[in-house]
Amino acid sequence: MGMAAGQARLLSITARLNHNELRTMHISNAKIRLADQTEKVGEEYINALNETQLMYSTYDENGNISYERLTGYALSSYGPLKNQYGLVNAAGQILVSELDAANYESSDNLEEFLDKYGLLGSLDEGKIVEVKNPAYDTAWDEYNAKYQEWKAKEPDKTNPIYWEEGQMEASSELYDSFLWATGVCYSAAMGALCGALGLPGDTIYDSKGNKVVTYSATDCIAYSDDGSETEINHETVDYNRHKDCYSHVLSHLLNLGSYTTTTGKNITITDGYGTNGHYAHWWENGSGNDRGGRAAELANILSENADKVYHCCAEDAVDITQNSSEVEKLMSDYYFDKSGNIQTKTLQQKIVDLNYAMCSGLMSDQEMYDAIQHFVNHDLKVLNETEDVFKQEEYDADYAKWEATEPVKPEVEPYLTKKVRQIEDSDKGEWYVNLWHRMNGESDYKSGYMNLDKYDENFDGWISDSKVNENYAVLEDGLMNSPEWLQFALEHGVITLEKVEFTYPSEEGDGLTDVQWVSTIYSSVTDITEQKDENAATKAEVWYNQQLREIEAKDKEYDNQMKLLDTEHNALQTEFDSIKGTIEKNVERTFKVFS
């Protein structure tokens, strides 16, 4: 029984020792957490000591400076020696107080707005000023409407009723001049192209039935007006040489100088044979049916500087688009102007375009043949037309009747004189004039009212429209007076500042032309300073000391518990060793008895 009781006690002590060791471990962990807590408290204390607050400085009449916590109200409320600032949100709207918003919303114009702040004197003490006469705009609007209606009825010279159709002549001297002037080169060029394409030749006659040219793949013949053959009678056609005559046919119809194609390329017509026979006048006046004289006359008639400008006989169907090739655009009777609209080429422009296309090698033989045939047998046919006769007397009579109905200009004075109330406090008045224009815009009147330059009377029928004013937003008084909110909003970019800058040395402006609201960074504003928050530092110190005392007290409590556990551990260990020794001796005696 004695040995069994000892073993039971030994087990009980062992359990107690293990329990004490576990408690000691928990207390040690708790002390580590206290150390972490001490470090955190220290960091919070340091942060509180470094905390700053934004202050706003103002001056009194004696130049003494005073500071107050920066709030929206401190910035935006009027002061005699204050710079004018505005709080602006991300949408670009100025944030105004509930009072300023109410005053604005209940005012139909600047005068009423200023009167809300008691800034206007009595009408008896006002001064005489010039104001815009509202009847002036009304009268001129009515006149302009009548004038436009009258102007639209002006007789049009292009109206068919003023033109008598001309009689088509049996012959055309201009077209005949072209055939005789270019006959030599035309026959040579056509003969070369007929040979290249395997086409038969042809004979060209003037309007009187006289032979002008005969051409084929083997020879070309040009005739004089008396029917005799010229000096190139039966000349063998040389493709490489006579194809250049294509350019001569066209160059003879242009005066000397530079020209531009509808595709933006330049050519220059010179005197003499020219490079490779291109872009040149090469014959002499008086030779061969006076070809040079006839060509010079035609060049003047076909010039775009002539009194009458001839255009191509354009077909109804437009044969080009913006995506057409360059050669297609050059061969067409049409072109696109700078606005992208389709226009008909003048004959001179068509000559320039074909000349460049041929000399630059852009056209195939078939395209050259088709283009010159179209030009000679189609476009140049406009030279056969006679001009219609303009009925000048009928037009003049209708014009006189129309002119007699011209509306009479209104005799209304643009300005009137009136007495207006004056701003008594110019400095404070300027402040609220600036605010009005920042909230409302340029006009002295709300949206929907007449936009007048100066003061004017109110007239019945003026109604404000329902458009929402997007220039301002209301900042509730709680936030407007909260320094913590404003500092957070400025530091985190929620809002920005605008400052009124005067464009002239004098601050006596009208709030619109003489001042500007300029965006500025709050940290660069001299009126705003940053200082240590003494109240926050004091509170932080009290809190820090209290936390330290609580931590130290807890630490001492843990130390005492550790000592008690250590004492109990030593006692239990001593008892454990004693019981263990007694059991070992009892076992040893028992073995001796039985042995």
Can you put this structure into words, describing what you see?
The structure is a single chain. The protein has 595 residues and is α+β, with helices and mostly antiparallel strands. The chain folds into three domains: 2-51 and 534-594; 54-133 and 413-532, no CATH class; 173-386, no CATH class. 45% of the residues lie in helices and 15% in strands. It is built from 17 helices and 21 strands. It has helices spanning 2-50, 72-76, 98-105, 110-116, 134-151, 173-197, 239-242, 245-251, 291-302, 326-331, 347-359, 365-377, 392-403, 426-440, 477-480, 483-491, 534-594; strands spanning 52-59, 65-69, 85-88, 94-96, 127-132, 163-164, 202-205, 211-215, 219-222, 235-236, 257-260, 266-271, 280-281, 334-336, 342-344, 389-390, 415-420, 472-474, 496-502, 515-520, 528-532. The strands form seven sheets. The protein has a five-stranded mixed β-sheet. It has a four-stranded antiparallel β-sheet with strand order 7-8-9-10. It has a three-stranded antiparallel β-sheet with strand order 2-1-21, covered by helices on one side. A hairpin with a 5-residue loop joins β14 and β15. α6 packs across α9 (291-302). The protein is elongated. Mean pLDDT is 79; it is low at 448-466 and 506-511.
